[in-house]
Structure formats: structure tokens, C-alpha cells
Amino acid sequence: MKADIFFENTQDKHTVDDTLQELVQTVVDAALAYEEFNKKTEVSVLFVDNEQIKEINNDFRQIDSPTDVLSFPMLNFDGGKVIESVGDTYLGTVVLGDIVISLERAAQQSEEYGHSFEREVGFLVCHSVLHLLGYDHEEEDERTVMREKEEAILEKIGLTR
After folding, report:
1. pTM confidence score
2. Angle 18-34/140-156 helices, nearest 10 degrees?
3. 41 phi and psi, to 5 degrees?
């Protein structure tokens, strides 16, 4: 099922065109399908630069430095399962949450890691969707699970290293 994605771009360092938005749509849909999350969903994606994500990171996490992606889940989870509540849906749509991506940082990291900008953005989107679905990577076992899922999802859509 295709997720409804609302895009906003507040940066001017990288072009946000239909191709980039289609990439994000493909990754979101692939991650949801992989997780068998078959509900009508909505996600907001905000493209920013390093300065903007630094401000958001400081405001919400009290970390005064830029990062590549931030995830703001709207759902509550219990043991990896969504807790169904009135607040989880709006007119029959599950509002998963917000993704904030620094395209400036994504470009820097794609060069560092030696792969395409598209692969990096795809990875960041996939990583963030897994956060929206309740996954985390604070502990080593959680990190391993997330990495395996990320690689499987990206491989399925041909975004390999």
C-alpha cells in the first residue's frame, strides 16, 4: 500500500525534484511492506541543511551539533506492536510521524562512504521509517536488527553499496 507523504523543503543546497521525492516514496513503501505494515499511512518529510538540523537536534535532543536524520514517531509501541488508539489514526490514516533529513549531510556522507547520494538518502529514509515503526539502536542487539532490516529493504529496491 502506498503511503501518503507530505514533503517540505527549507534548504537550498540540493535540488529537491520529482526524482528525489519518488526515491523517498519507494523507500517508505518498501520499508512498510517489509514490515508488513499494511495500513493506510501518512509520513511527513522535511529536507533541511546542516544548520537547520543542528537547531532541531538541539531543540529536541539537547545535542548542539548537526546530524543526518531525525525521526519523530507519532505512535506508541508495546513489544514492537503498535498500540491501537484513537490518536493513531486520522480519518482512517495512521499518522506515522515526521522525518527530517539534512541533504547537505547526506551528500557529505555519500562521498565519505563512497556510494551515491541516492543510496545515502535511501538509507536515511529507511533508517528513519524503522524508527517511526518503533525500532531503535541504543543496544547492540537492537542495532544488529535494524542494520539487517535496512540492508534487506535497500537490497530489495536495488539501493546497494
Report:
1. 0.91
2. 120
3. -130, 160
